[in-house]
Design a protein that fits this description.
single chain; about 575 residues; alpha/beta; 8-stranded parallel β-barrel; flavoprotein; FAD binding; Proline dehydrogenase; EF-hand-dom_pair; calcium ion binding
Length: about 575
């Protein structure tokens, strides 16, 4: 019976399933010019593969490696992630996964932790967290403490995404931290991030994750998000012809109505700068860029209307944030470390996207031999994620910079839905998990197709120095990983090109990560660190995510349990992945 994950490569590949498990031979060596089809079998799965004689040698090798990777990921007897771990670590992971399966505990954990902190019981709660969830999902309290984890991952072909897990949010009463104290804290975080970049640089091709709320006063991100949303609505309102363009007269009406007749000279200056082709027309991208906070002329307009939510201190906070980011970007460029800008809550995200695109335009030049530095993140559980992804991809084409991104499903499901319900606005998250899966798979397929189109244009295999697209498939979903690998086979995109990367969080879905690492598929682990009180929000999200993806936890738990039993009773495993 053909497996539902079987690869659709007409005349090139056929996947059959055996009726029982058995030991399999290693991949047969291909000989250039062989006249007969070559057969090989996965080292740990019951999948068999056949390649047609006309398949080129190098392409056949790539297909065989990808097919073998799929086979091992699919195998229920895959021991790659567990076979070298001490039994104590296996038992600890199993206990943490079991705790994550208690939804009542996970759902109440934020309230319980908050109560304990207010009651002066932080010490015992933090002690418990440190020895369970923190030990499972974090690399340590400092960047230096993560070095052991980095080294262990490297030996298994796994790269690093180092993350100082500090973020800021709106307080319970709806207000935000005072400007002065928040900027002092952001300066401290920036210095710590510089140390993080230096530590990550010790391992080539590493990433460092950035949370913009930790590097700014979050007020500016919230207010700039509100402003961007208002500007988008204003463009639609004054786009009389509904053709996605504003004429000069339309823009002047916009300025007169919202800012007054005395701003005519500023308005004309802005329009002339935005109308690069001198057509007398601007589209929404040009309109938004024209009114950017980087433009001194637009500031004089935006501050005049309270509907745009901006004050003078917001401009100052924005400038300070951008100064911190530019310093970190320059350091990352010098150290050859890539920066991954994390997605955050929806009331910050449009501003984060805007900043990420500005930095990408500067640091992701197409002629950079080391590839792009800035990676943005798209949470595909959001209803507007597909539109934003495609819009920003088109912007990268327009501005001639590399579109580098990480595709995730999303990490703020519980808090986003709770806030939407409490504040009475539409739920920003897809109504069903199936819709989220569909959006995620569309995003991956869209970017893979763009890579394939570029390869056909250049008529050669692309690499990190010349590709217009580089992205990470960040997922704990086995089906998504296998589907991406299958599509890469279909499109002849090498898993070793460095253009399509894979990522999972530390302490989660090790079977997928270690298998991809074994086959050198460009896989990374997201390794957060920080003091216990600083990483609590991150740990709560990890527990919630694990409780949500119960099927994935079940598979991992079964693998752990089987390995533990085999070792205790000295049972020889049926299959070894050495």
């Amino acid at each position: 019976m053909t497996n539902r994950f079987s690869t659709k490569l007409p005349t090139l590949l056929r996947i059959n399933r055996y009726s029982s498990y058995e030991n399999f031979q290693h991949i047969q060596r291909l000989k250039l010019g062989a006249l007969q089809p070559v057969r090989f079998t996965s080292t740990s799965s019951k999948l068999s593969y056949y390649f047609h004689e006309k398949t080129g040698f190098s392409k056949t090798s790539r297909l065989m490696e990808s097919a073998s990777t799929i086979g091992d990921i699919f195998s229920e007897d895959n021991r790659i992630a567990v076979q070298n771990k001490p039994i104590k670590e296996l038992i600890h992971t199993l206990i943490v996964y079991r705790l994550c399966s208690f939804q009542w505990l996970v759902n109440r954990s934020p309230g319980l932790i908050s109560f304990a902190e207010k009651a002066g019981l932080s010490a015992p709660i933090y002690w418990l967290i440190k020895r369970t969830f923190f030990a499972q999902f974090c690399g340590g309290e400092t960047a230096e403490q993560c070095i052991d984890s980095m080294s262990q991952l490297k030996t298994h072909g796994i790269g690093l995404i180092l993350d100082l897990s500090i973020e800021a949010d709106i307080n319970e009463n709806g207000s935000l931290s005072l400007n002065e104290s928040r900027n002092i804290e952001a300066d401290h975080v920036s210095r710590s991030m510089a140390k993080c970049i230096t530590t990550a640089a010790s391992q080539p091709n590493s990433f460092v994750a950035l949370k913009l709320t930790g590097l700014s006063n979050p007020t500016i991100l919230r207010n700039w998000t509100l402003t961007l949303n208002s500007l988008s609505k204003s463009f639609d309102k004054f786009d009389i012809n509904k053709d996605g363009k504003l004429e000069r007269s339309d823009f002047l009406k916009f300025v007169y109505e919202l800012f007054g007749d005395d701003k005519e000279n500023v308005a004309k200056t802005l329009f002339d700068h935005a109308d690069e082709n001198k057509e007398g027309l601007i589209d929404k991208v040009e309109f938004i860029n024209m009114l950017s906070l980087d433009n001194k002329y637009s500031r004089s307009l935006l501050i005049c209307n309270e509907d745009f939510h901006l004050k003078q201190e917001d401009f100052e906070d924005y400038d300070k944030m951008m100064d911190r980011l530019k310093e970190l970007c320059e350091l990352a460029r010098i150290k050859n470390v890539r920066l991954m800008i994390d997605a955050e809550q929806t009331y910050f995200q449009p501003a984060i996207d805007d900043v990420a695109m500005k930095l990408s335009a500067k640091y992701n030049k197409s002629d950079n031999k080391n590839g792009p530095i800035i990676f943005n993140t798209y949470q595909m559980y959001l209803k507007d994620s597909t539109e934003r992804l495609m819009r920003n991809y088109n912007l990268s084409n327009r501005k001639q910079f590399v579109f580098a991104t990480k595709i995730v499903r999303g990490a703020y499901l519980y808090s986003e839905r709770k806030r939407a319900k409490e504040m009475g606005y539409p739920d920003p998250i897809h109504d069903t998990i199936e819709n989220t899966h569909a959006a995620y798979e569309f995003a991956v397929e869209f970017l893979l197709n763009k890579l394939s189109e570029a390869q056909k244009t250049f008529d050669k295999q692309l690499d990190i120095s010349n590709s217009p697209v580089v992205f990470m498939v960040a997922s704990h979903n086995k089906r998504s990983i296998i589907r991406a690998l299958r599509q890469m086979m279909d499109l002849d995109i090498s898993t070793k090109s460095g253009l399509v990367l894979f990522g999972q969080l530390l302490g989660m879905c090790d079977t997928i990560t270690y298998t991809l690492g074994k086959y050198e598929c460009g896989v990374y682990k997201y390794v957060p660190y920080g003091k216990i009180n600083e990483v609590i929000p991150y740990l709560i999200r990890r527990a919630q995510e694990n409780s949500f993806i119960l099927e994935g936890i079940k598979e991992e738990s079964q693998c752990l349990w089987k390995e533990i039993i085999n070792r205790i009773f000295h049972i020889q495993p049926l299959i070894s992945n050495s």
